[in-house]
Amino acid sequence: MKRRLVSAILLLYPRRVREDHGREINALIADLVARDGRSPIRLLMRLAVDGLVQRLASTVTAWTLAAVLAGTCIGGLAASNLASASPFQREPRTPRTTAPGQLAPDCRPTRQAAPHFTMTRDETPHRPHGDPLRSRHRQLAAHDRCTH
Amino acid sequence: MLLPDRSVLVLTSLAGGDRHGYALIKDIESFSGVALSPGTLYGALTKLEADGLVERLPAEDRRHPYRLTAAGRAALAERLTESARIANLGLERIALGDA
């Protein structure tokens, strides 16, 4: 049973180690358990961990790492270019400076004093604050800009 | 050639004579205090054998003894000389710092 378990764990190792030294590893584990009284469970667990480490070290070479890094960089650049060329981009938003539901300070309707119409001697109206109709029109336009 | 530490331990043990797996583990534990696992030991032996630094002798009851080759002896000597040079330098600097 234990030999079968060791053989199963040895499948984690690179083929070279498994084929060249599989029987020796089995014999060595049997020696360590019989002569030194080592815990078989601990030995088997460490055998499995070593096998994983060696398998990773034998498959992940420097070239593999370099290829993965290069692929990641090229893929990232391509995705970035595609995103910047997309027609579905949103308009850049200006940061909100007021609480939701409030109008921005420059959009608040200003309370203007009612234009005074004073009559001069020659009976022509004097409009100290400009043309009231034009002023009202500007106010409405500003309000429309802020609400739409 | 840059030898990893566990390879240096295995080569140093084999410099004292031919040994199989169990004898290697016990010898390394006695002179360095490092308990190599079977997987680590045979991983190192596989690499050293592939590099021509150790050779496997015919089996004695399922256990193959290993022997240091001439190339292995030279590589070990080079590595230990370099380690000794660094160790001496470090010790000199420590002594100067203490003085």
What is the assembly state of the chains in this entry? heterodimer
Tell me what portion of residues of chain B adopts beta-strand conformation.
Answer: 5-15%
Amount of helix of chain A: 55-70%
The main pleated sheet of chain B reads as:
2 strands, antiparallel
Q: Roughly what is the average pLDDT of chain B, rounded to an integer?
A: 92
Backbone CA Rg of chain B = 16 Å
Class inferred from helices and paired strands of chain B? mainly alpha
Q: What about the largest sheet of chain A? A: 2 strands, antiparallel
Radius of gyration of chain A: 41 Å
Greatest interface by residues involved: A-B, 23 and 18 residues
Characterize the structure shown.
The complex is a heterodimer of chains A (148) and B (99). Chain A is mainly alpha-helical. Chain A is built from five helices and two strands; from the N terminus they run H-H-H-H-E-E-H. Chain A has helices spanning 2-10, 15-36, 40-59, 62-84, 132-147; strands at residues 118-119, 125-126. In chain A, strands 1-2 form a two-stranded antiparallel sheet. In chain A, helix 1 (2-10) packs antiparallel against helix 2 and helix 1 (2-10) packs parallel to helix 3 (40-59). The longest helix of chain A has 23 residues, at 62-84. Chain A starts with a helix and ends with a helix. The mean pLDDT of chain A is 75. With 99 residues, chain B is mostly helical. Chain B contains four helices and two strands. Chain B has a two-stranded antiparallel ribbon with strand order 1-2. In chain B, helix 1 packs across helix 2. The radius of gyration of chain B is 16 Å and the shape is elongated. Chain B starts with a helix and ends with a helix. The mean pLDDT of chain B is 92. Classes of the chains: A mainly alpha (148), B mainly alpha (99). The A-B interface holds A 13-14, 16-17, 20-21, 23-29, 31-32, 35, 43, 46-47, 49-51, 54 and B 20-22, 25, 37-43, 45-46, 49-50, 62-64.
